[in-house]
Amino acid sequence: MPYVNIKITREGNVTPAQKQALIEGTTNLLHDVLGKNKATTVVVIDEVDTDNWGIGGVPVTEIRKRPK
Hints:
This protein has 2 helices and 4 strands, in the order E-H-E-E-E-H. It has helices at 16-34, 60-65; strands spanning 3-9, 42-48, 54-55, 58-59. The chain has a two-stranded parallel sheet. The chain is elongated and about 45 Å long. The chain starts with a strand and ends with a helix.
């Protein structure tokens, strides 16, 4: 039984349809590449607050504030 955990930042811009597409696409990928049974493949999407996610020692909230 494959278990896949997708983590994304919680910024309010991921729609239910996009999440469904991630779940379906991930399930299909495991089936197509590894032959895993779709009925027993688990995909979980965790949305993480940007204050709880850091890159290079800096919270994503701060990175998002920087000029591009």
